[in-house]
Structure formats: structure tokens, C-alpha cells
Amino acid sequence: MNAVYINSASCISVQDTLNENFFQHLQPENSTQIIKAIEPNYKEFIPPAMIRRMSKTVKMSSVASHNALQEAGIKQPDAIIVGTGMGCSQDSEKFLKNVIDNHEEFLTPTFFIQSTHNTVAGQIALGLQCHAYNFTYVNTSSSLEFSLLDAQLQITDGEAENILVGSTDEQTDRTMELYCLNNTIKKEADLPADHLHSPTNGVIWGEGASFFVVGKDKTKSTYARLKDIQVINKLELNETQDFITAFLTKNKLSTHNIDAVILGFSGEAASDVYYTNVMNLFPDSSLLYYKHLSGEFNTASGFSIFMACHILKSQQVPEVMMINRTEKKEIKNILLYNHLSGSDHSLVLLERA
């Protein structure tokens, strides 16, 4: 399959990633159970009357998508594709609370209408007056990967030239309470977390929105070539290395051709073994991790792709991401491997443009 280009990248995360110099100010977040995104002043981007009606995920996505389109110099994308694991969960909770509080009577439909997962893609299209293909993928931790795969197929088939692709997930109070109760989130006693050598289960939960413009042509703003994506729902631990080597072989590469590998270590002992298992496949590569910077959430891979784009463009690796001390004179190929609690394993291969 022909590669497509990532021509812009914008991210709102628990780091100050809207700042041009964010590379120098990355701070690990390992002492709090739940970490919130650093939000911009929305009044600079969205009319105040609209802000009141928007949930956090819609606001974050509106700003990130606006920045991505502006950086790529695109006013009207040929398609808008968004991946999300939880959707507009704030409005979902508000609607369910209304159902309970009002005994299922006299309900206003507003929160229900705004709670659907495709609200984000719809709101972006409304703001742009874009009547093109508009789609939302809800595939837990591989939602962004399926969105990028859809965009790649459309571009290589000649159906589109420039596509806005994004991912977004927000936190909600009740859901975070439930995640703490079922031990999805680490207990306070297990903090601060060691993301690389954690003896305990559970994760530190984050949130964020990442948006990219992918296109058929290389431009002045191009970050990387999107070479290939592969997703598998279930994978046995002893199958992990074969999964990766087969993916690289399909792309006419070996493990020695990979300059950097970005792994999704989350601090969960039970599922991080997948990442530990593949590290010895790459003795000559820079091994990197990122969830100590972003937190874990359904579309945390958006943060890793955003970071990979900047690494390829700047040819610099932030020291705070390094697992080993292998440094390359040139970073040409980056492999990203992610999963969520041992399910939905994804591989993304990016190449320097």
C-alpha cells in the first residue's frame, strides 16, 4: 500500500503540548491517580455562547482540529474521521443523572443528543460547514489506528487528498470513581508509579485530544510518512514477537532498520509484560515510552503519534522518554506499539519524510 503523509499534528494533553517549546518542558506525572489535560483559553478559538454548550472533549477537539488544519494550510478537508473510546461521556453522565433524578419523566433531550460518540466529528464539520465524509470509530484503544487506516485507504484509492483525522477522550467524575473501585486506576498506596518496573496493577488515568491532517502529497509542513498500520484484538504473550516481525517483514524491514520504538508502558504489571517481551527484539534501537507523560486512556496512542511526528521532524528524542541510552545519528523509521490492558494491540510504522 502506498504511504500517505502526516502534514500537521496538534495535541491537547496533560503536557503543555500547544506550546511550541513543549519538548523542553515535558514533566512525568506519576504521583496522582488521575491527571487532567492542560486546556487552552477556549475564548480565543470558540465563541463564548457556544463554549457553554460544549463538553470538554468537544472543546479540546475543536481547538486541536483548528490548529491541525491551520498548520497544514487546509480550509476544507475531504473527510473528517475521529476515533474515541468513551465519546462524550460527560454529557452521557448528565443524561443518566437526569433520568434517575426525574424518575424517567420530563427529560430534556439535549444531553442525550450531545452524548453520542459522533458529536465531536459532527461539531467540527458544523464549524467548518464541511459536508464531506464524516465518520467516528469507537474501537477502545485502537480507535485512532482504525481512523488512520480509513484515511490511508481513501487517499491511496484516490477518493480524497487531505483528511482530518483525530482522537479524543475526556474524564468524568463518576466513571473515574468506578475505575478506582474496580482497580483500573492505581490505588493511592501504590503511588508514585514506576511505569517501567511496576509490581502493581492499575494505571494512572489521563485524557486528551490529538488531531492530524494526512494527505497524498508532501508539503512544507510534513512531519512523517504513514507507512503501515496493523491491529489485532487478542494476542498471546508468546505470539507478540512474531506479530511484530511479520509486520516489519511485510514492509520489507527488519528489526535492525527500526531506529526508535515507542512502547506504551502504563505501569500495569499484568499487561506491561507484552512490552517487556519485545524489547530484546530491538538491540540496536532507541527504546522509548510515553504514558508517564500522558497518562493511560483509550486514545493515548494519539499522544505517542504526535510525539513520534515531532521526533522525526526535529531529529531529537526527549531524554524523559528514553528507556535505554541508544542514540541514533539519524531517525528514519519509528515503530509504535500500544495496547490497553492486554487487548487491542496496534502497530504503527512512521518514516521520516
Automatic annotation (TrEMBL):
Gene3D superfamilies: 3.40.47.10. GO terms for biological process: fatty acid biosynthetic process. Keywords: Transferase. The lineage of its organism: Bacteria, Pseudomonadati, Bacteroidota, Flavobacteriia, Flavobacteriales. Residues 46-216 form the Beta-ketoacyl synthase-like N-terminal domain. It comes from Chryseobacterium flavum. This is 3-oxoacyl-ACP synthase. GO terms for molecular function: 3-oxoacyl-[acyl-carrier-protein] synthase activity. InterPro entries: Beta-ketoacyl_synthase, Ketoacyl_synth_N, Thiolase-like. GO terms for cellular component: cytosol. Pfam families: ketoacyl-synt.
